[in-house]
Automatic annotation (TrEMBL):
Family: Belongs to the glycosyl hydrolase 1 family.
Protein name according to UniProt: Beta-glucosidase
Organism superkingdom: Bacteria
Entry-linked NCBIfam families: BGL (TIGR03356)
Organism: Lentzea atacamensis
Magnesium keyword on record: no
Record-annotated active site: 165, 348
Keywords assigned by UniProt, alphabetized: Carbohydrate metabolism, Cellulose degradation, Glycosidase, Hydrolase, Polysaccharide degradation
PROSITE patterns, sorted: GLYCOSYL_HYDROL_F1_1, GLYCOSYL_HYDROL_F1_2
Record has Hydrolase as a keyword: yes
GO CC entries: cytosol
Length: 441
């Protein structure tokens, strides 16, 4: 299955701060937009919050031992901005920084390379109150925060990701309102897109000036296919790709926004608030593009060009209702190689299934192992077709807070019992560990 993967291809597991840490009000942490959003009635399934989550903040050393036992080369985690810089401005919070410093030391001691993401959606609430991502100043605040984190961890962390999935931050956060901060205004979402990209660029410059050798951004992407040759369906797929992928990668890699996307946006009464010099900042060269892949969609036009229909292909689905499309990952990686040419890493891939645990907490999740296996094969196929892909992180290390779905949706290769906080390796974790062992022999 991993035939064709290049020598040195690495394996990892991924998490994010708000989804696992808990300890939401300890040691000086202030609320993020997710703390606030979770308290809004109806925002999250069952009214759940990340207040406790997997209690990783208090169980970090044992969790790192578990990561090491999986045999992975790297661990991808994110830093909670309101833990490290409460309120999003000013001095660091030494206790917050200390947590990540200990995490990095534990990882290094166990031979696992830390892969740090600066922002996985937990904007300090005070910055949202000042305007959030639609407000330009937030980008400058982010660059300052990046520098503070680098002051504390730069000597030990080799790889830096600025943002996780700006599409989710902008579109789910400010257009559909399904994620924090839960606003519903397309024009604001478009402003957020630009300021997220600017934040990435400013932070990249900050990190570069400090000598960071490997930095990049992570995007969630799929391939968009038209339902038929009908020009309206072809256009629906073009729009989805434009607003999902090209609006990020064209400025990041080529230093310009795609013309057709600017026209689509203008037709919806919105505008990208670009100022002179912004695109030079945004296109600061990156070393690695993080690719998060879960599914791909087929699009059919409707009477509203801004709202195409997703046409189910009759394929098996995960517990999220997402169709399982490994071939889409091959197509995506080959296309990204051709159009953008940046070395890539799969920073997330995985699936929620309706796990049934036995009395010992063991889950025989052959479905999840199959999902991972078929997508790893798809990566190998893309590599054989010329895509430069350097590594693969499974999402996720353990079951965790799945945003608007709360704790119902389990993506972990490790089971978490939320009553006892006991962790139990699932069959998929054993399978992943064995795959890693075999790939080294
Ligand atoms: C990603 N969508 O989120 C995130 O990076 C993870 O934190 C999350 O747990 C994981 O995927 C599984 O959902 C996404 O609506 C959330 O297309 C929603 C979408 C895509 C990615």
């Amino acid at each position: 299955m991993s035939e064709g993967l290049p020598a040195g291809f690495f394996w990892g597991v991924a998490t994010s701060a708000y989804q696992i840490e808990g300890a939401h009000d300890e040691d000086g942490r202030t609320p993020s937009i997710w703390d606030t959003f979770c308290r809004r009635p109806g925002a999250v399934a069952n009214g759940e919050t990340g207040d406790v989550a997997c209690d990783h903040y208090h169980r970090m050393p044992a969790d790192v031992s578990m990561i090491a036992r999986l045999g992975v080369d790297r661990y991808r985690f994110s830093v909670s901005w309101p833990r490290v810089q409460p309120g999003g401005r000013g001095q660091v919070n030494p206790k917050g920084v200390d947590f990540y410093s200990r995490l990095v030391d534990e990882l290094l001691e166990k031979g696992v390379d830390p892969w740090l993401t600066l922002y996985h959606w937990d904007l300090p609430q005070e910055l949202e109150d000042a305007g959030g991502w639609p407000h330009r100043d937030t980008a400058y605040r982010f660059a300052e925060y990046a520098g503070l984190v680098h002051d504390a961890l730069g000597d030990r962390v080799p790889t830096w990701t600025t943002l996780n999935e700006p599409w989710c931050s902008a579109m789910l956060g400010y257009d559909t309102g399904r994620h924090a901060p839960g606003r519903k205004n397309f024009a604001e979402a478009v402003r957020a897109v630009h300021h997220l990209l600017l934040a990435h660029g400013l932070a990249s410059q900050e990190l570069r000036s400090r000598g960071v050798g490997s930095l990049g951004i992570t995007l969630n992407m799929g391939v968009s296919t038209p339902a038929s040759d009908d020009p309206r369906d072809v256009d629906a797929a073009r729009r989805a790709d434009g607003l999902g992928t090209r609006i990020y990668l064209d400025p990041l890699v080529h230093g310009r926004y795609p013309e057709d996307v600017l026209i689509d946006i203008a037709a919806r009464g919105a505008e990208i608030p670009v100022r002179s010099g912004d695109l030079e900042i945004i296109s600061t060269p990156m070393d690695v593009l993080g690719v998060n892949y879960y599914t791909s969609h087929v699009f059919k036009a409707t009477d509203n060009p801004a709202a195409p229909e997703v046409v189910p292909q009759g394929l098996p689905v995960t517990a999220m209702g997402w169709e399982i499309v490994p071939s889409g990952l091959t197509r995506l990686l080959v296309r990204l190689q051709q159009d953008y040419g940046v070395p890539m890493v799969i920073t997330e891939n995985g699936a929620a299934f309706d796990d049934a645990a036995d009395e010992d907490g063991f889950v025989a999740d052959a479905d999840r192992a199959d999902y991972l296996a078929s997508h790893i094969s798809a990566v190998a196929e893309a590599v054989r077709a010329g895509a430069d892909v350097r590594g693969y992180f499974a999402w996720s290390l353990m079951d965790n807070f799945e945003w608007g779905y709360g704790y119902d949706k389990r993506f972990g290769i490790v089971r978490v019992d939320y009553e006892t906080q006991q962790r139990t390796l699932k069959q998929s974790a054993q399978w992943f560990r064995d795959l890693i062992t075999r790939s080294r022999s």
